[in-house]
Each structure stands twice: as structure tokens, then as C-alpha cells.
Amino acid sequence: MSAPAHPAAVPTQTSPVTPYRTLHLLLTAVSLTLVLLSVNRRTELTLSFVAPNEFLRWTDLNNMVLGMVTVLLYYAIITHLTGAGPGRFTRFTPHGPVFALAAYLYACSYGMHEITNYLNSRFCLNGSGAACRIIDFNDSEFSHYLFFGGFILLNASIVLAQLHVPAMAPLTRMDNVLLVLNAAFVAAGIAANLAFEQIGIDLYVVAAVALGTLTAAHRLPGQPILRYYNVGYIGGLVLTAAIRTAS
Question: Given this model, what pLDDT does residue 171 score?
């Protein structure tokens, strides 16, 4: 009589093999983008002019490029979560139209802000008149409203994609470690922008994303993207509060 067949191995919580390898790589790319954005915004390394005609500084151009990279990474995450190729992605799904609108607002905000911010900082710091008032409004207010609208919708499209096609494989211990590690970059980025500057509408935007992802996680627990968002955004708000309280 032949020996009984061995049952197929079942992945355990400590198994090093994870079906979320691609997701972790994409989130790591997002973390790298956050680091580059912070270096570009917080240092003086990129303040030289792009061309002899001084039409733009490298910091402004870099922000446009990194904004484009961010949108492409979000698209890659959505298509990875839903397992959708280009043809399937164009079908009417909860996340598709939201992503399209978000990408449009996000691009408009970067195109408007980087140009007007450059003009404002170079020609209008001590200036007055209608031209400078218009430039300052587009730089400091209108472009920010567009950015925050695009930012909320970009993150909403990711959350909707996860809810639309939930992950079925359980998260391993290493999955959770990598999710928390990448989320720590998000938390640090939030604190860097909220803890050391005058808080405005950006606090409410971050809080809205945190509340939305927390609600989604309560509805559908155990999803990798929702865990990543909860750790990153709630952790960022807690870190911001701790820094501002200590200072």
C-alpha cells in the first residue's frame, strides 16, 4: 500500500513567503518619493535656476516631476490591488473615476503652485499691487485648494480599490513589519509638514483621510493598504501633537 500523500503546506503567520511583495515594493517607492520631496522642500540644495533665462528653479521643477511620479505610483498601486490591466481599469468602477478626477486636480495644483510660488518668492516678497496680489492668491490659496482636493481623492481612490477588491491572503509578520516601516515615512512626512509650521486646512485634510481610512478598516479589517494608511496617518497626527506639545 502506498504511503499517504503529504498535505500541501499551508502558509503560517511566520512564513517568509508573502504574496504582497509587489505591494511592499510600490509602498517603498512611495516612501522614497516622500524623502525626495522633503529634501527638495526643506533644504537649499535645489534653489539654483534650471536654465539661463531663470524661468524656474530646480526645486519647482523637481516638485512637478515628483508629483507626476506620485500619481503614477498611485495608479500602479490601484491596478495592483484590483488585478486590472489598462482595458479593465477603464471600466466604470468606484475607484476609476475618482482617480481620474484626482489626477487632474493634482496636476493642476502643481502646475499652478510651482510657477506662482517661484514668481511670488522672487518678485513679490516686498512688492504690492494687483499683479502680486493675484500671484500670491494663486500661490498661497487657490493652488492649495486644488492640491488638497486632488490629495484627498487620490487617497480615496486607493482605499476604494482595496474595498472593491479585498485582499484574501493573510498578512504575515514580515508583511506587518514592512507595512509599518513604510507607514512610518508617511507619519514622519505628516509631522514634518504640520508640527513645525502654522497649521491650517492641511490638518483637516490629513484628519479627513485618517478618519476615512479608519472607517474603511472597521468595515473591512485585515486589509494591507488600510493598515498602512491607519498607521501612517494616525501615527502622523499623534507624532505632530507630541512635537507641538513638547515645543
Answer: 93
Longest Cα–Cα distance of the chain, Å, equals 96
Q: Is 130 exposed, middle or buried (0-12, 13-18, 19+ CB in 10 A)?
A: exposed
pTM: 0.77
Helices (H) then strands (E): counts for the chain: 10, 0
User: What span, in angstroms and rounded, lies between the C-alpha atoms of 79 and 101?
Assistant: 16
For residue 25, CA distances in Å to 32, 114, 182, 233 come to 11, 29, 10, 20
**Which cell numbers hold the place of 77?**
498601486
Cell of 204: 483637516
Q: Which phi-psi region, left, alpha or beta, contains residue 85 (left: φ > 0; alpha: ψ -120 to 50)? A: beta
Across 75-97, average pLDDT = 68
Task: Specify the 3-state DSSP secondary structure of 49.
Answer: strand
- The grid coordinates of residue 209 equal 483621510
- Report how far apart, in Å, the C-alpha atoms of 63 and of each of 97, 184, 195, 227 are: 25, 22, 21, 28
**Residues 24-35 pLDDT 10s:** 999 999 999 999
**Close Cβ partners of 63 (under 8 Å, ≥ 6 residues apart):** 37, 40, 41, 110, 113, 114
CA quadruple 225, 226, 229, 235: dihedral sign: negative
pLDDT band per the 50, 70, 90 thresholds, residue 113:
very high
